[in-house]
Amino acid sequence: MLVVAVAALTTGAGWAQTEMPGPLVQQQPGGQATIGQGWRLLTLPKQKPPVTTYSAVLLDGRTALRIDARASYGNLAHALIGPAPATLRWAWRVDQPNTSTQLNTKPGDDSPAKVCLSFDLALENVPFFERELLRLARTRSPEPLPAATLCWIWGHAEATASVISNPYTKRVRYVVLRGQGDATGRWFEESRDVAADFRAAFGEETQTVPPVTAVLVSGDADNTGARSLAYVAGLVFSTGAGK
């Protein structure tokens, strides 16, 4: 369902689009941590599940985004416009994993933490059947839906480095980075080659990395009805387009 929630970002209506996102979390004078400017909470139209709680905290000397999902859904997002970054870096930890996660199934399509980019993929690159479904979905949405969203995700039993299509729509694809084999309550540093990961996920459609339209950080537990707790810190874009 992520593809629906990011739709509002593709036009930038009411959003300040930038080539680089502002800090995800920043420390204010006096030591208080706040969510950065330009980041907005997005939910589904007429959403029934509770909304995932996002807050800024100081943890282990880091300013971090706390992601508390309790049978809930919601995305923290920042609109962008411009070429894809060459590298995306961040640190994250999971203190309470979701052991019911099964990313290739609709009932298990939840994650304690994910970092995503939406891309302005040209419609002609989308396979015919999916293109027609996307066109139909766009007629029912007040905003154009992105044709490609790539998420780096904290799963559960999935194989590390596996690429999985979202069970609701192949327009969203996951690269699994962490899961049950990774210790809880411990920070892990990530550095991703955006172009390489995009081609691993969408390379059968295009080898050219499209411009980005949004970056999202989120956690959800609405499908499993479970609870998870995670933190993301130090989200940094490198300059330059993906090659």
CATH topology: Jelly Rolls
Secondary-structure content class? mainly beta
Reading side by side through the largest sheet, how are the strands ordered?
3-6-13-8-9-11-10
Give the total of beta strands.
Answer: 14
Second CATH tier, the architecture: Sandwich
Biggest β-sheet strands, sense, barrel: 7 strands, mixed
Name of the CATH first level? Mainly Beta
Instruction: Give the terminus-to-terminus CA distance.
Output: 29 Å
Q: Give the count of structural domains.
A: 1
Number of helical segments with 4 or more residues:
3
Shape: globular
Q: Low-confidence parts, pLDDT < 50 over ≥5 residues?
A: 3-16
Helix and strand string, N-terminal first?
A: HEEEEEEEEHEEEEHEE
Beta-strand portion reads 35-45%
Helix fraction?
10-25%
Q: What do the pLDDT scores average to?
A: 88
**Alpha carbon gyration radius:** 17 Å
Structure in words:
Helices cover 10% and strands 39% of the residues. The protein has 243 residues and is mainly β. It has one domain (2-237): Jelly Rolls (Sandwich), CATH 2.60.120. The strands form 3 sheets. The protein has a 7-stranded mixed beta sheet. A hairpin with a 6-residue loop joins strand 10 and strand 11 (172-178). It is globular. It starts with a helix and ends in a 6-residue tail after the last strand. 45% of the residues are buried. The model is unreliable at 3-16 (pLDDT under 50).
